Amino acid sequence: MSPKLNVIIVEDEYHSRETLRSFLQEYCPEVEVLDTASNVTEAVEKISQQRPDLVFMDIELQTGTGFEVLQKVQHLDFHLIFTTAFEHYAIKAIKFSSIDYLLKPIDLEELIISVQKAKKLRESENRKILLENLLSNIKDGTKENRKICLSTAEGIEFIPTKEILFCEANGSYTDFHLTDRRKLVVSKNLKEYENMLQDSNFMRVHNSFLINLGEVKKFVRAEGGYILMNNDKQVSISPGKREEFLKRMGF
Q1: For labelling alongside 32, which of 2, 54, 156, 195 has CA 20 to 30 A away?
Q2: Fold of 147-248
Q3: φ and ψ at 88, to 5 degrees?
Q4: Pairing between strand 202-206 and 234-236?
Q5: pTM for the whole thing?
Q6: 5-139 fold
């Protein structure tokens, strides 16, 4: 039997903190709650001293944010699950970095799944890389400087969004076509990346294509119309998307 995951809960609301502790103790036998913290200073101190395997981190604390805790902790050698009551800008940065998160009120089934994921990643060196990329996206949070975390069969890659030419649906997978001519195959569907990239100058122009508008070379009106990307790949455009595309391109 593998050792239990040592957990610290960072949460400033007493009821939320104790509910999460109770859920973990009753329904997640693979974890042991070492301690809790209710503010930034306390969280940094306890994480640094106790070096947990897993931290549940509230994003918005009364004394600051969970991101401030991460910036002040020297050893980013733990798995992180964010908890938040708000769907806002921070969630996008979290998704870009493939960090797990739970929306409050926490759903028990989702909690159990998240703990199982943390257990599988226990010995993974990727934990630190994911957290460092998250902090980079938060610090340099302009849309142009964002890096998206893509998990492929070969490993994890962090790709600047400006280096993505277009994304192509491939069943339940997505093919990323990059400016350096590489193609990465990722095991998430195109809709998920549409939601992530739509405010980074990307547009879903067809059921099968999500394109970087900054990498469009030409719009060809012949044959019903299609888009030519900077790598000379022809991309189909749906008739219902043509007007919006031309408007966004300034025509």
Answers
A1: 156
A2: OB fold (Dihydrolipoamide Acetyltransferase, E2P) (2.40.50)
A3: -140, -160
A4: unpaired
A5: 0.73
A6: Rossmann fold (3.40.50)
* pLDDT single digits (tens) 167-223: 999 999 999 999 999 999 998 999 999 988 988 899 999 999 999 999 999 999 887
Q: Give the residue among 187, 165, 163, 157 at the shortest CA–CA distance from 174.
A: 187
Listed residue (41, 47, 95, 86) closest to 68, CA to CA:
41
pLDDT tens-digit series, residues 123-158:
665 777 888 888 887 776 556 678 898 988 888 888
Return phi, psi of residue 51, to 5°.
45, 65
Residue 197 and residue 191: Cα distance in Å, rounded? 10
In the chain, % helix, strand, coil (3-state, to 5) comes to 35, 30, 30
- The C-alpha torsion from 202 through 204 and 208 to 213, rounded to 10°, is -40
Over the Cα atoms of the chain, what is R_g? 21
